[in-house]
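Deliverable D4.2, example record:
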Amino acid sequence: MANLNYKHLRYFWTVARTGSIARAAAQLHLAPQSISGQLSEFADSLGVELFRKAGRGLELTDMGRRILGHADTIFGAGDELLEAVRDQGASVAAPFRVGCADSVSKLIASRVVEPALHLATPVRLICREGRLDSLVAELAVHRLDLIIADRPMPAHFSVRGHSHLLGQSGMTAFATPALAARFGSDFPHCLDGAPMLLPGEDFAIYHRLLRWLDESRVHPRIVGEFDDSAMMKAFGQRGAGVFFSPTVIAPQVSEQYGVTALGQADALVEQVYGISTERGLRHPASVAIGAAARATFVT
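Output generated by the structure prediction step:
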């Protein structure tokens, strides 16, 4: 076998990460035909099949996935090298990059991540928000050090990562004072027939909440579902319906949105996870976040 062609490896890695030759070609500013030809040369030089057709797109073979794992490590190390060179002699703090899944409350995420700002050696906090699957893809190529999520990393992701339960909290129901005056007694039975706002199906708490309502034998009138927890609370602030939020941030929710707590559902639990690679697990900021979270949440 010839020596590894790193240019060809870069093309393969980009196609695998973008999902198509066309998108990879646009990202690399090359013609799709050029990318396709170089991929064929790369596969021939290795003597393996890297992709197979899947409908109108491509999917990795088993060997392709193994090679992708090595490519993630190689190019992630290259990014770290360039970052170290850029930071050499600079007075700015080293970056600590956190991805917050959009299914995690902003109040919870800020409380969990905030200890990273109080290290003996300062860091420059860089926060990204998005869907968990896109954040895991960023973690795989070392563009994130840590992900804050409401569930562990799903098993179907081919990423060498680790999920750690940072904490968990029961849930509290909130409503405006006017709505609470109409439905605010004998919790949780007061929720029967009350207008209710739910988090979207992508939230880990979604199905737990529906199951808890069923087990409590209450049947609220669902008036909306929201993929953004802040928007759900904003509608709740305007009196559109009752909504749930983690009990650990209940005072902040009441103050920020001008709502009243109707009651606590301790059996309804929201969890917060930290997801990172082996490298991220050793980062001092990750250690500080884990320690502070264990002291803050009821686990």
